UniProtKB/TrEMBL annotation:
Species the sequence originates in: Alkalihalophilus lindianensis
Official protein name in the record: MerR family transcriptional regulator
PROSITE patterns for the chain: HTH_MERR_2 (PS50937)
PANTHER family registered for this protein in UniProt: HTH-TYPE TRANSCRIPTIONAL REGULATOR TNRA (PTHR30204:SF65), REDOX-CYCLING DRUG-SENSING TRANSCRIPTIONAL ACTIVATOR SOXR (PTHR30204)
Pfam families with a match to the protein in the record: MerR_1 (PF13411)
Domain HTH merR-type residues, every copy: 11-79
Transcription regulation among keywords: yes
SUPFAM superfamilies, sorted: Putative DNA-binding domain
Length: 84
DNA sequence: TTTCTAACA
DNA sequence: TGTTAGGA
């Protein structure tokens, strides 16, 4: 990246994530609550989702659609990707 | 107007 | 998971 030109990456409000992932706001907040994803927070404690956050939601959604529950997804993500 | 948290059906 | 109350 070029710090002299950009400091902020593309982020979107929950409404955009809802449309891009076809998940409800309830699910988006619940999956975060369960530790499946950790979106950034910007102004008044509102979630700011990056493109990578949306891609992760699509992965989470694919597991849900395959009948895997939140606990199972949490295990899968924990055994494959250990991030911050 | 949109989003947030907590809590109840 | 849906939905609502009450607030920022």
């Amino acid at each position: 990246m070029d710090p002299t030109v950009s400091k902020k990456q593309a982020c979107f409000p929950i409404r955009v994530v809802m449309e891009m992932t076809n998940l409800t706001a309830r699910q988006i907040r619940y999956y975060e609550e369960q530790g499946l994803i950790k979106p950034a927070r910007n102004d008044g404690n509102q979630r700011m989702f990056s493109l990578e956050d949306i891609e992760r939601f699509r992965l989470i959604k694919s597991y849900i659609e395959r009948g895997i529950n939140v606990a199972g997804i949490k295990t899968i993500l924990a055994t494959n990707v250990r991030d911050l």
